[in-house]
Amino acid sequence: MLDHPSAAAYCLPGVRPRVVVSAGTLSLLDRAELAAVLTHERAHAQERHDLVLLPFTALSRALPWFRWVREAHDRVALLVEMRADDKARELHAEEPLAGALRRFAACGDRITPAGALGMGDRDLDVRVQRLLVADRPPRVLGATALTVASILVALPVSLFLN
Fold first, then answer.
1. Could you tell me the residue ranges of all domains in the chain?
2. What residues contact 52, with CB distance under 8 A and at least 6 apart?
3. 10 Å Cβ neighbour count for 126?
4. pTM for this entry
5. Of residues 10 and 140, more confidently modeled
6. Which of 49, 65, 73, 116 fits 60 for a cystine, CB–CB 3.0-4.6 Å?
7. CA distances from 14 to 9, 19, 32, 120 (A)
8. CA 55 to chain CA centroid, nearest Å
């Protein structure tokens, strides 16, 4: 719990990951929305999404002048957020997480520290629209997306090491 009036919900990755929620978030969200957000953030910690993003973050810092490197980082970051959204959607209905995302988007005083996995500014509309689509993607698509993301993680690292 972070005693701060701004809205914040994020995961601090590491050996002992922590989910941080601010007082501003507690006053912003209702109980169902907060539960969905906590499940979303716990998914980041449990599935070690920080390790998925690590090679892309390293490459984007090492090669900042290549637009495709930055875009690859941004797309993988979006996929990681969508994966955490899916985990939250498994335990909660679509609406609480979508409502929480909308409230975060409307709230002008969000904070997420650098290096944290959380509700950032980017792609909130895309994520909300995806959550509210009536048909969920079949499990085969989820497994395929996970496989593609894993390959995307391994490929830049293997190319960089060669």
1. 9-161
2. 76, 80, 149, 153
3. 12
4. 0.75
5. 10
6. 73
7. 16, 11, 27, 19
8. 16
